Amino acid sequence: MGEHEDGGGHPPTLGNRIEYLLVRILALPMLCTDVHGAARIGRVLGRVLGIVDRRHRGLAEDNLRRAYGGTLPEAEVKRIIDEVYENIGVTAVETLHGPRRIRGKAAGKWFTADIHPDLGARLAEGPVMFLGAHFGNWEHIIPAARAAGLDILTVARPLDNPLIDRWVTSVRHAVGHFSVPKEGALRGLLRTVRSGKCIGMLADQNGGRHGRLSTFFGRPCSTQAGGIVLARRLGIPFTVGSLERRAPGFHRLVLGPPVYVRDGEDGEREAVDAMNRGIEDVVRRRPADWMWLHRRWRIKADWGFPVEPTEGKRKP
């Protein structure tokens, strides 16, 4: 489920050009070997990033401690976050190798699928809203779904660097991952659903002042509810999906049962809570596969939520 779409709305700056050049240079050695060799390089680069990226690493460790209520030994916290950074590196190289490997009938050998029976029955009747997270290789959840016979259009926003955005978009298109811009997406999504196709988006980041108040790992958070609202308006159920890495390049697509959104504010609130529980279950199964680097539990005083603000605070 994509997070970005082609076409950043501003011309590239000198900084954008330098960043793009560095990224393309770093990509070269990973493209000079197979996916297994590239994964080894990716793990090393991810581990190095985890050492130099002290700010986000500190945030990730703090998030993990508080999510588990301080029950994890400190050595386990550090081990999990080490693996988080390694998985970021592996995800990057798998994505780079995607256009070489995920094409035609060969795509099916890289993915298996575990689809809840109730969801399978629903898919035989009509489209579904797929809601995912920055978990495992989230970039390949769409080609994995396509290999399982599901056609999904995602909602996305552009990357900040327009040069990298165009490059990443071309890589996504090469593996059959297409999306519509987040701004003004409703019209395109309506056409997609009416044609019988499914839609999807990532829903595990902070929702800001316009999000819905819910909980994640038992802690209050602002949640992006766009997917839930769209599912209700379009009259379709949603499901929580994830892609679990079994080995470099090999993944298992896991799709949960369909959840129908009741009308009204209470119905949407229940559905947001159910979505968060579904994503939380995915993360608890494999905590090292989730991006703990997000400021997931940030709440500012002026957002109007009836809970104590957490912005700038570090509580046990």
How would you portray this structure in words?
With 316 residues, the protein is of the alpha/beta class. It has one domain. 46% of the residues lie in helices and 15% in strands. Strands 1-9-8-2-5-3-4 form a 7-stranded mixed sheet, sandwiched between helices. The protein has a two-stranded antiparallel sheet with strand order 6-7. The radius of gyration is 19 Å and the shape is globular. Mean pLDDT is 91; it is low at 3-8.
Largest sheet report: 7 strands, mixed
Distance between the termini: 33 Å
Strand ordering within the main sheet: 1-9-8-2-5-3-4
- The amount of helix comes to 40-55%
Poorly predicted regions are: 3-8
Q: From the alpha-carbon coordinates, what is the Rg to the nearest angstrom? A: 19 Å
Hey, roughly how much beta strand do the residues contain? Answer: 15-25%
Number of beta-strand segments: 9
Note the total helix count. Answer: 10
Alpha-beta classification: alpha/beta
Mean pLDDT: 91
Instruction: Note the overall shape.
Output: globular
Whole-number total of structural domains = 1
> Helix and strand succession?
HHHHEHEHEHEHEEEHEEH
Task: Draw up the topology in text.
Layout: H1 14-31, H2 35-52, H3 54-67, H4 74-101, E1 111-115, H5 117-123, E2 129-132, H6 141-147, E3 152-156, H7 162-174, E4 179-181, H8 185-194, E5 198-202, E6 212-216, E7 219-223, H9 226-234, E8 238-247, E9 250-255, H10 264-285
Parallel strand pairs: 1-9, 2-5, 2-8, 3-4, 3-5
Antiparallel strand pairs: 6-7, 8-9
Helix pairs in contact: 2-4, 3-4
